[in-house]
Automatic annotation (TrEMBL):
Residue ranges of domain Glycosyltransferase subfamily 4-like N-terminal in the record: 34-202
Name recorded for this polypeptide: Glycosyltransferase family 1 protein
Pfam family, one: Glyco_transf_4
Domain of life: Bacteria
Amino acid sequence: MNTAQAEGIVVDNLKAAQRSLRIAFVTETYPPEVNGVAMTIARIVEGLHRRNHDVQLIRPRQDGNESAERSPRFHEVLMRGLPIPRYPNLRMGVPSKRALVQLWSVNRPDVVHIATEGALGWSALQAALHLKLPVCSDFRTNFHAYSRHYGIGWLYKPIMAYLRKFHNRTQCTMVPTEALRRDLEAGGFKQLTVVSRGVDTQLFTPLRRSQALREQWGVAPDDLVCLYVGRIAPEKNLATLTAAFEAISRQNPRIRLVVVGSGPQQAELQARCPNAIFAGQRKGEDLAAHYASGDLFLFPSLTETFGNVTTEAMASGLAVVAFNYAAAAQLIRSGDNGVLVPMDDQDAFVRVAVSAAADLAACRAMGVKACTTTSELDWASIVARFEGVLEAVMVRAAAPQALPLRATARRAA
């Protein structure tokens, strides 16, 4: 038995018809897991494949019966994984350096891209450095910020030190916004470049608004629906959501709150908001209909690197109330196509949410403008930018004295 078999790897050798680059893409989350990182990674991987690159997707097996045959679109390598505590539907990778060294020694990629910083991501980084492969990474999840919401805030500095060490050993780290790039650079992160995120405007559109769904929620055509989509978990700052909706309800008891998602705080949130509608996890057109059938999107999270739900809500024609950072800061013109609130000011969030909910016509007018704002966030252009950064990483690896990466990436894109 070889090392790959011993590590529990399943390999599917299908390749793109016309290979341009051989890209090893390493991630510890991928659909059907439901989260913004998994969705974004799937868009990038599938977009690279459509651009005739030979993509080798390396990720944890998501259940004991899964085989690589489920994804014939590209070469897939399924590694052993373990359930994440408190998130049984998600998996994390395990140390796998030896298997990856063997895999890439036989099937050497042109470039390695690491999307997550867990045990599998660290193993991929070590294997790539061992084999002297060009390697780049993504900063996609604020694990360091999450620590403050799980009673382990004392780990903030060690986590940041690990993340800084991880990313600074790659030749480039992609981040979704310029603001995050500046923050990380101030924290000692190097070789950062901005690659934003797109939204599927064919899926997320006001045309999916469903009166039948609204009737199921018990709301009339002229009633306002507040919507939240995301994990029901401490890092999403849901105390601010409940405070806002309680204040809104005191002004107008007919307004409904619809919560789409699941997570460890669901029972607590249900007890706090007994009249809210908990729709559970939704996908595809069903999720799109839930977005489009709302009116006001309340997003109180303070731990996003981007916040895909912001763009999905805007594309669906909803006015968004959010703190002034991540995707919201990048896309919302406060008072025009949504409303921005100063960072970590819960009282202001509540006041703004109450004011927005009091004017249904203004909400819907902002929603129309929000939809227009997202019309140019095309995934094809995002994938092309991503491709350009990969090419720049390869150039930099081949010629260490070349131009700084960000300048090179712009030329390659």
